[in-house]
């Protein structure tokens, strides 16, 4: 060993003092001991230790030896390596402490956060306890280093987790808070001990059973309602726990952890889509009571897309409907109890609920302020229109009704009773609800001529018996009785709207319910007699087409009906008014007749001239007609133009006519005859001559007062009828015997017979006047008598007026100018004392009151008696 290495690190204090006085400072630096002797070092009590006893002696010997053996230090051997090594180790230790105390934990923490992968495989609620729920959580846990972006953090993390390998926890209480909602406690979970492998890429199957206890019920309600209302954009959860970690048997201490997790709206589980697969209402007796209630059963199916399993016990709920407006409180209508529900991952979940409705609350059926509808009406309107109505479901604190549940824990009842869930209640289409719609015993009433425009009396009215066969929805399995109906109906002919049938007043109704059999559906037959329902014709052209089809089409005319019907129904819940039920049907109208015009068989009875002018007659007559149609009608007033060969010759009017089915006698009509010139004269002349004459009837703007467009539209339909036959005073009153073919031809003429006097060259005629109340005057006659239609017998020219009173009358003797050289005259002489048939052609001037007219007359087969 060299001398320097044998030099002690410690030297005596005395030597030091002596050397320091004998040598220069630069020479003594290297030999100065690192530690001074105790004698030169101040004591803790403030005095110097001057040596003594054995210790002092030992120090003296050591000092002497040091002086003798130690060479003088040189400049080349001044570095002491042990000191350097000690300093390096100390520095490295400091650095290691800094790295492992600060950098490594931070890197490991960053690595753990980025590399941790937790894949839930199943969540099942094993049971519901008095305090909460017991849940089984199954998941796969691993650390995936490739998820860490920072390569240095990844290396440190992999190294640290490789060294530790496994982490274990003791039982831990995890508390979850809602920082954005006053830091309220959402719930706590008691997590049992578990061990996970934290080596990179190693998978650990986690299977734990934890007790979950809900926290503040008000906070849960707030979150749930915001989520249900779509107002929850994001939610931040903050979990806090004190976790005791260990690896193997080495405890790693207790760590307080606080982590926040934010769920965006798109990541929050949404309300699953559901279908109401069954809805049934039926009457059900109340156990132990002599009464029945309305029982409801509903089945809802939804698909569970989450890895969650749960067995839900029976729960009680309340069903509510909206009030009059958004701010009105919901109205309780029913109590429901769900059957136990089994929820399994990725499968359909079926929820079946039973409930009862004991009565309808008054607030549900009362009219809303400033409205004609109640909350029930508003709900049914959406439902019956096929729109989606909304009901609200809320948990019950205390279950009521026929299906009561008593085992629901208080904490669960508090939560579900504070959460109201809107449930879409899809409407249904009633397109095929009406199976048939018929209108029989139809009676029409024309508008009142004195009604103001817009008054219901200004519209035509319809009366009849409505029979409706309706199919009851499958969910309605209870008895009901329809007592009244009312409706506003649109009437269509093809695709065009004819008008509106107003049944705004309640109409009495009866109903018969037929239960569903094995091969058919349940039906309800509703019968109602409507009376004087106004028919507002909105398109007169369509009505004209309908009338034309009825008159000349020869086949059934189908009218379409689309209506919104209000129905007053008696059920076990009491009297219920259902408004706005859509009804659609067809009303077949039978054709008026194959030959309506010919079937009318009009006959004119009593005729009276009630007014005259120089150019016109106003006539009142009684008319007999036959109505072959299945319809009846009341005509307050109607005016129809009478035309001959397209020329207006008169106007017929009728008031307060009641036309029934079959024969109608003594219908009073009036007519104004005037104008028309030659056409009018020819028509009367042909008529009194016994020709087959006809007239055309046509409506006009004034035909139906208050409905000018209707009269104008119907004017497109021309009805041509044979001129009514006059009932002459001596005709047989029995219609069955009143057959023209069975009578003597002379019986149909106004001249019944004639008597010719050969020697006095005069003739008298027996006349039959159709006027029973007026005298007809003949002002002049210019007539020719013919034998065998062509051979003249004689000529009469008379310019002195004479009267033809009502009934049969004989003319005065009229002068005759014989055709002496004619065959006709010879036949006349041969018939002296007997009779022969003569024809006549005449021009006659007639007068009634102030009216005068010149007519022509052709008579055939007039029986003429020949006297001397």
TrEMBL record:
<keyword id="KW-1133">Transmembrane helix</keyword>
<keyword id="KW-0812">Transmembrane</keyword>
<feature type="region of interest" description="Disordered">
    <location>
        <begin position="1"/>
        <end position="57"/>
    </location>
</feature>
<dbReference type="InterPro" id="IPR046368">
    <property type="entry name" value="Tag1"/>
</dbReference>
<feature type="domain" description="Tag1-like fourth Ig-like">
    <location>
        <begin position="601"/>
        <end position="708"/>
    </location>
</feature>
<feature type="domain" description="Tag1-like fifth Ig-like">
    <location>
        <begin position="744"/>
        <end position="856"/>
    </location>
</feature>
<dbReference type="InterPro" id="IPR059065">
    <property type="entry name" value="Ig_Tag1-like_4th"/>
</dbReference>
<dbReference type="InterPro" id="IPR059066">
    <property type="entry name" value="Ig_Tag1-like_5th"/>
</dbReference>
<dbReference type="GO" id="GO:0000329">
    <property type="term" value="C:fungal-type vacuole membrane"/>
</dbReference>
<dbReference type="Pfam" id="PF26153">
    <property type="entry name" value="LEA-2L_5"/>
</dbReference>
<feature type="region of interest" description="Disordered">
    <location>
        <begin position="726"/>
        <end position="745"/>
    </location>
</feature>
<dbReference type="Pfam" id="PF26174">
    <property type="entry name" value="LEA-2_1"/>
</dbReference>
<keyword id="KW-0472">Membrane</keyword>
<dbReference type="InterPro" id="IPR055011">
    <property type="entry name" value="Tag1_C"/>
</dbReference>
<feature type="compositionally biased region" description="Acidic residues">
    <location>
        <begin position="730"/>
        <end position="739"/>
    </location>
</feature>
<feature type="compositionally biased region" description="Low complexity">
    <location>
        <begin position="30"/>
        <end position="41"/>
    </location>
</feature>
<feature type="domain" description="Tag1 C-terminal">
    <location>
        <begin position="476"/>
        <end position="590"/>
    </location>
</feature>
<feature type="transmembrane region" description="Helical">
    <location>
        <begin position="84"/>
        <end position="104"/>
    </location>
</feature>
<protein>
    <recommendedName>
        <fullName>Pre-rRNA processing protein</fullName>
    </recommendedName>
</protein>
<dbReference type="Pfam" id="PF22786">
    <property type="entry name" value="Tag1_C"/>
</dbReference>
<dbReference type="Pfam" id="PF26150">
    <property type="entry name" value="LEA-2_4"/>
</dbReference>
């Amino acid at each position: 060993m060299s001398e320097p290495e044998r030099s002690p690190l410690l030297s005596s204090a005395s030597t030091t003092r002596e050397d320091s006085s004998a040598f220069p400072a630069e020479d003594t630096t290297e030999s100065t001991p690192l530690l001074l002797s105790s004698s030169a070092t101040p004591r803790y009590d403030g005095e110097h230790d001057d040596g003594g006893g054995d210790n002092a002696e030992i120090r003296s010997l050591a000092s002497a030896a040091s002086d003798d053996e130690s060479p003088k230090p040189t400049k080349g051997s001044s570095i002491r390596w042990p000191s350097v090594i000690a300093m390096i180790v100390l520095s490295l230790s400091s650095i290691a402490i800094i790295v492992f105390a600060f950098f490594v934990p931070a890197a490991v923490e960053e690595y753990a956060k980025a590399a941790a992968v937790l894949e839930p495989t199943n969540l099942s609620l094993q049971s519901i306890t008095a305090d909460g729920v017991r849940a089984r959580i199954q998941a796969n846990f691993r650390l995936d280093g490739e998820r860490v972006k920072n390569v240095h953090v990844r290396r440190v993390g992999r190294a640290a987790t490789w060294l530790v390998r496994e982490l274990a926890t003791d039982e831990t209480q995890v508390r979850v808070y809602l920082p954005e909602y006053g830091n309220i406690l959402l719930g706590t979970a008691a997590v049992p001990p578990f061990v996970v492998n934290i080596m990179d890429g190693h998978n650990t199957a986690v299977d734990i059973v934890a007790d979950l206890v809900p926290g503040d019920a008000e906070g849960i309600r707030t979150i749930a309602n915001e989520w249900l209302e779509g107002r929850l954009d994001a939610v931040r959860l903050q979990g806090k726990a004190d976790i005791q970690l260990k690896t193997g048997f080495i405890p790693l201490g207790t760590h307080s952890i606080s982590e926040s997790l934010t769920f965006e709206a798109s990541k929050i589980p949404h309300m699953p889509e559901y279908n109401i697969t069954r809805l049934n209402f039926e009457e059900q007796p109340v156990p132990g009571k002599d009464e029945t209630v309305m029982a409801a059963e509903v089945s809802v199916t939804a698909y569970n897309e989450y890895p969650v399993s749960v067995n839900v016990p029976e729960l009680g709920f309340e069903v509510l409907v909206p009030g009059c407006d958004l701010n009105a409180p919901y109205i309780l209508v029913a109590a429901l109890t769900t059957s136990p529900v089994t929820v399994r991952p990725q499968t359909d979940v079926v929820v079946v609920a039973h409930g009862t409705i004991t009565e309808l609350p008054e607030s549900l059926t009362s009219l809303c302020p400033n409205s004609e509808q109640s909350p029930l009406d508003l709900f049914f309107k959406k439902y019956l229109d096929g729109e989606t109505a909304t009901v609200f479901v809320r948990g019950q604190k205390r279950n009521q009704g026929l299906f009561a549940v008593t085992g629901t824990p208080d904490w669960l009842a508090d939560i579900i009773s504070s959460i109201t869930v809107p449930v879409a209640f899809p409407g249904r289409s009633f397109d095929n609800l009406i199976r048939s719609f018929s209108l029989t015993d139809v009676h029409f009433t024309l508008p009142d001529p004195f009604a103001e425009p817009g008054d219901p009396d200004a519209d035509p009215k319809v009366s009849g018996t409505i029979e409706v066969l309706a199919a009851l929805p499958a969910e309605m399995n209870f008895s009901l009785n329809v007592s009244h109906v009312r409706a506003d109906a649109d009437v269509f002919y093809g695709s065009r709207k004819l008008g509106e049938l107003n049944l705004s007043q309640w109409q009495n109704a009866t109903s018969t319910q037929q239960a569903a059999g094995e091969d058919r559906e349940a039906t309800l037959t509703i019968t109602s007699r409507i009376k004087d329902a106004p028919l507002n014709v909105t398109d007169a052209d369509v009505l004209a087409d309908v009338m034309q089809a009825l008159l000349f089409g020869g086949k059934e005319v189908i009218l379409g009906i689309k209506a919104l019907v209000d129905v007053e129904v008696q059920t076990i819940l009491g009297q219920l008014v259902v408004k706005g039920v859509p009804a659609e049907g067809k009303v077949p109208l039978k054709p008026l007749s194959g030959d309506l015009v010919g079937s009318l068989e009009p006959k004119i009875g009593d005729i009276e001239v009630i007014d005259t002018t120089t150019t016109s007659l106003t006539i009142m007559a009684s008319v007999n007609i036959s109505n072959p149609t299945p319809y009846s009608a009341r005509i307050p007033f109607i005016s129809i133009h009478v035309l001959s060969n397209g020329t207006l010759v008169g106007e017929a009017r009728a008031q307060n006519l009641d036309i029934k089915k079959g024969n109608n006698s003594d219908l009073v009509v009036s007519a104004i005859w005037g104008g028309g010139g030659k056409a009018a004269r020819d028509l009367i002349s042909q008529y009194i001559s016994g020709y087959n004459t006809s007239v055309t009837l046509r409506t006009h703007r004034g035909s139906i007062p208050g409905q000018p467009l209707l009269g104008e539209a119907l004017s497109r339909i021309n009805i041509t009828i044979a001129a009514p036959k006059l009932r002459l005073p001596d005709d047989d009153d029995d219609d069955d015997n009143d057959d023209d073919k069975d009578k003597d031809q002379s019986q149909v003429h106004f001249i019944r017979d004639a008597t010719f006097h050969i020697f006095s060259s005069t003739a008298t005629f027996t006349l039959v006047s159709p006027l029973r109340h007026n005298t007809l005057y003949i002002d002049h006659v210019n007539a020719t008598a013919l034998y065998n239609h062509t051979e003249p017998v004689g000529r009469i020219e008379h310019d002195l007026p004479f009267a033809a009173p009502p009934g049969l009358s004989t003319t005065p003797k009229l002068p005759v100018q014989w055709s002496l050289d004619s065959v006709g005259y010879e036949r006349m002489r041969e018939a002296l004392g007997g009779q022969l048939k003569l024809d006549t052609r005449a021009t006659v001037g007639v007068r009634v009151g102030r009216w005068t007219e010149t007519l022509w007359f052709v008579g055939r087969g007039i029986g003429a008696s020949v006297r001397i």
